[in-house]
């Protein structure tokens, strides 16, 4: 592979191109009309506009992307995450056109893309699963019997679902029929597939996922876990590696189960096996993601591996050069996702211009982003503007560094989730490690940020008055400019 097209935008497009550059591989960007001035377009060696702003008319245009590859003699495509990354038809189309798809086979994507077929495939490979139905349930009588055997409450999940869509909790047998009816009709309208299945409801679980890496020679490794329990509306907000609750023994067990799950589909490239972990440290397979994930940097930080480089080498047909025994966790990494959303206003997307955009710097800080000061946040795509990752020798150092980095990060013009992330970093439940997927529901309400702001504003006012009095005493005049600078700085912080 000498030239790779990145079928994506934003931070992940840049992330992939950086590794290509280090490997001496030329890069091609594709972009929509809304992304003309985007950083991924400027960073690439060549860039081609493939259509209007709407994703369906640009980043999802499979044939247009193939045409660009032909025109520019591209020999590999990296799909990033989202968009076409888990579309097996696209992976097949790429391959059929003699281009290397940097990702797993269409077969692996198809099996793992459906929850029921994924569970069926991995069940034979000794991967623990939540008690429930073995396949799709087709009638209420059968469903109720399975639910009773598993024990209420149960969840009815859509086989084609993802991100919590089409999931319904059933508290008792009397609700069963109504909830199943709703689940099936939701699944039909959302995914065009009404298949549903039953799982016992695991209360207060942690979301632990294992990074795996497979080559085309049958080697599969686990690159340890990421803890992603802090989510809202099934969207991850904070991730870290390693998890502070896994013992070396549990880590090995979960890692080996993840490798087994990957083996069920002869997995190649980078993938993630998701588990629920209950209060008694029982873990259960949820699903497998057949792409590079948003939160992959925390794994890179603790293993020292460049996951994109590994993906490219695997796609080239090279055998992995490391073994499981070579892999060690060194230090701790935390990632916060910076969304253009207002945490004080139900996390509603906040669009606008990045009037001020100053990134944090210094030892142990990594920022993966796709924006610059003065740019507009387009409404057409994901509202994530950046990922802020900190690394430390241990969890406490990574967290302290994160708080410092969030304080340095200066963004005005739009509201972001940064103040929310700082709140989490300083919360006792987070710092002590005693939290689960209900963290936000249990501990967050907008007022906690408002109070924080009021306090900072009060301190700012006191400092300003004292400064003014001191200046008067010294018989010097505080120039309007000095006053303005001090004020605007505090305003930014208070925002
Ligand atoms: C569960 C569960 C409890 N018990 N399954 C949510 C999205 C999908 N990936 C799976 N999800 C869950 N499945 C059983 N049997 C709780 C969740 C869940 C969740 C999982 C991971 C991270 C955050 C979550 C938030 C709410 C519910």
General description of the model:
This protein has 495 residues and is an alpha+beta fold. Mean pLDDT is 93; it is low at 476-495. A hairpin with a 5-residue loop joins β15 (341-342) and β16 (348-349). It is globular. The chain folds into 4 domains: 3-102, 3-Layer(aba) Sandwich (Rossmann fold), CATH 3.40.50.20; 131-200, 2-Layer Sandwich (Dna Ligase, domain 1), CATH 3.30.1490.20; 206-448, ATP-grasp fold, B domain (D-amino Acid Aminotransferase, Chain A, domain 1, 2-Layer Sandwich); 460-494, no CATH class. An 8-stranded antiparallel β-sheet has the order 13-12-9-10-11-14-21-19. The protein has a 5-stranded parallel β-sheet with strand order 3-2-1-4-5. It contains 17 helices and 22 strands. The protein starts with a strand and ends with a helix. α16 packs antiparallel against α17 (480-494). It binds ligand MV4. The site of ligand MV4 has 14 residues, from β8. Ligand MV4 is lined by residues 130, 155, 164, 199-202, 205, 207, 231, 234, 276, 286, 437.
